[in-house]
Amino acid sequence: MEAKGAAHGQAGVRRGVLARVPAWALGLIPLALIAAALVALLTVGGDTLGERRGPPVEDLAVEQTVLRPGEVELTLRNAGPDPVEVAQVFVNDAYVDYTTGTQQVGRLGAETVTLDYPWQEGSPLLVTLLTSSGATIEHEVDVAVATPEPDGGFYGLMALLGIYVGVIPVALGMLFLPFLGRVREHWIRIFMAATVGLLGFLAVDAYLEGTEIAEESTGAFGGVELLFIGAALAYFGLVALDRFLRSRRERADAAGAGAFQLSLLVAIGIGLHNLGEGLAIGAAYAIGELALGAFLVFGFALHNTTEGLAIVAPLAKRTRPSFARLAALGLIAGAPAILGAFIGASAYNPEVTALLLGIGIGAIVQVIVQLVPTFRDRAGRALYPASVGGILAGVAVLYVTGLVISV
TM segments (predicted)? Predict the structure, then answer.
């Protein structure tokens, strides 16, 4: 009994000591131990496992291609676990001279290789990199076109392109607001359902485009999973924004604030989608896959005009917002296309593009969740013949207008 009492006393002392230690210190101690264990594994853990057998694992990929007169510049990314050294380079089966900063590219590292090759505009290029271990990495350029220099005129062109395909179409679509203010409440619910169809189509389109881009990436920092990471960040971020706006509205109790909040969320979702669209347009232009013709601009404008309708639909039958608020909604939805065109044309990266497209998907999904209650009927149903017809009509409009866009 005395031994048992002593053990209980010691346990009580230990609990008393732990109670006096701050909570942050209790959390910091295991973190420090984990960090020390990981450092030990990195420094001495490999030596205890013996020499690794088998050839090195080499995974080198071309992250970016820049074409200048008489030279080809490749940015290489090592997505494998072992360092990679480029020994020889061939272009269209012909050996070429090249210059590089370092001999080896470490894990997750990047290196620029400049090839001395007199390429001809419009011709295809097949670049073959031979590593020191004898492995080959191939990179194909379908049509060789000089990469635009990022000067003032270049950025001016990208800004104009973003205005044409983003700002102007959204502003034109917002002109439907007076019309929506005159129609019956039943039709407003149908238009709200059509808005969900429009946004749903945009989300699916962004997902398909994002998976295609992610599969073309080096994979060093992730692939398709970046879409889901971006979607989660945007979804929960917009949930937090919605809660913040809702609390402010409840305190202000302003008439029409709820409708404007919903329109703001729609504009943010569309704006994030247009950011990804601008990325794709700018990148396609930079590598010569996009011809800036009048028909293409017309196609994008027609396709994106419906986005303006989606923004103003929640404002129908409510207190009319000021012109400044409407202009702000239009810029939030359309202006990101300009930023996307800048980034896509000057510093395109597949991983970043996939992440941004995922952010657009998450934002759109959260906006759809917000819109569904707005077109419920008196029985509380979200899906009934009129709403289903509206959703299908929204999908059909974007599908048909998308047919005239050929990138």
Answer: 21-44, 154-180, 187-208, 220-241, 253-273, 279-302, 323-348, 354-375, 382-405
